[in-house]
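Researcher: Batch entry, complex prediction.
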Amino acid sequence: MTAPLLSAEGLFKHFPLRGGLFGRRAGKVHALNGIDFAIWPGRTLALVGESGCGKTTAARAVAGLIRPDAGRLLFRGKDVATASGNDRKSARRAMQMVFQDPYGSLNPRLNVNAIVAEPLVIHGIGDGAARRDRVAEVLAQVGIDPRDGERYPHEFSGGQRQRIAIARALAPEPELIIADEPLSALDVSIQSQVLNLLKDIQAARGLAFLFITHDLAVVDYFADEVAVMYLGHIVERAPRAALFAAPRHPYTRTLLAAAPRPGGGKRRPGAVPAGEVPSPIDPPTGCPFHPRCPRAVSACRETMPILSGGDHAFACHNPEPVP
Amino acid sequence: MINAGVAPPALEVEDLAVVFPTRRGDVLAVAGVSYAIGRGRTLGIVGESGSGKSMTALAVMGLLPAPGRMTSGRIHVGGDLVSGLGEDDMTRIRGERIGMIFQEPMTALNPVFSVGAQIAEAWSLHRKAGRAEARDAALALLDRVRIPEPSRRYDDYPHQISGGQRQRAMIAMALACKPEVLIADEPTTALDVTIQAQIIELLLEIQSEMGMAIQFISHNLGVISEIADDVAVMYAGRIVEYAPSSRLFESPRHPYTRALIATIPRVGAHDTRLPAIGGQVPHPLALPPGCPFSDRCPLADDDCRKAVPQLTTQGDAHRVACIKAEAT
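Model: Structure tokens for the complex:
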């Protein structure tokens, strides 16, 4: 196999919580507890999990929006944090982000042309005429009429705004798109349009994706590799088909059982264990899933299982049997 | 159901229309909607934003936000006409006969009172009971909705408990009066998927115990499928298809329903292309002539643009508002 485009090694991020009279440290949010993953050129890694699992923090660390406390991000084998100025800039240009909320992520005071040209300006790509051509080209690619480039974000629907955000990400010819729940704010009939668009762009341009979502059906549709996260840990990581055919971590199985299936009939009782995701401020000892886990054994309360198993890796003392 | 032919439905809505005057003209948010829900049954109302599904619910509860108003329609709860009642009577109906839960529990919970106190108050509103009795009832309700350690949670304020537990507390409050009808507007949309599954399971369980009718509103066909007996699909203020849940998912007749079901990514569909619905939901002041879906519909022709198709029976309980439905 070729070398990964991007690899994350031991990413670690705790956010301090301040409280009390003088803003003392009142604890910390354990957002990322040392996670490893790799993204290959032209392929999609999905990070999937529920709120507080750390998937958005991981995306923001990859995008350079936050600095991890420990761990390394290697882009084409070079550490992004310690790379020379030029290497770092080209790595940043090669990784572009699409956010969940197309209402909050587009500057309302800029017209569409200026929004899409922004990364070109930031990275000093092309002159005025070349930028205008590039903007028109990517707008057409995402299905926005370039003649609408003088209009402002509020004149567009949510789905069109998300297309504009995708055009902005495509403008500097990235190699990796980091997409954080890019469908969640859209209507059902618009979600499939945007999902098809992302799949087309990937096929046409060989882009890699880091795709953040809570929706396993979208994961199965779009991803090549999947990492399931729970409370700042990757608990299972596998090629898509292997994960859906034989989920080994009880949490992955729980997520699959919880996903509503249209036309599947009424929900049957007992498919999902009771309890909620514990607070990342005060995570449980041992395996973070053990308080809810139907398969927990005594070791689970004491030691955190290590993610192991090669291509299909899982972190579990008592994994689900292979069906 | 015993005496199914005799007993009136728990909720019956006839020809409901809701109008919002705006500077650019009157928006017909709900354009003549009729349905009935029997005791112990759940009607799922599914639609995208602007379909009128939430306005239908707010109209039933007499809580339409200004300047919206009902321009036609009769609403019966257990056979009694409740539309057109004054504010005081409607408040009583909401406390005694219709319970409500929403997407955001903080809209129903008061941030300055403890969760337990609010449930106790809802319980004692229409009963002559002492404080101790109300407290016991609230504790039982907290336990019923599976909030762990009810006696410790009783004094917690809404912001001190998780989103899932707030949703449970709101359900407890809605159940305090043992309503005949529970209106649930996207109650699981803001929740994580495992908590969503728990809440749906809880609602199904409580319904089989208490026998209330549920009107469950969601944009998510998967969630609707998990809870509903019958499904109404709304588009641009109208019900465009109405059928028993299994029928609707197995053999949808309206082109919009068919597209909506086909368009959802499913586990196991990796190598297919999603059939997307082109265009977008039309603006309520710029509806196409005739059928409101005609500008996005692959089957539409000139006949579809002549008149709004009426919801008509397709056999037993399957109704479709589409003149092309036979052809599909």
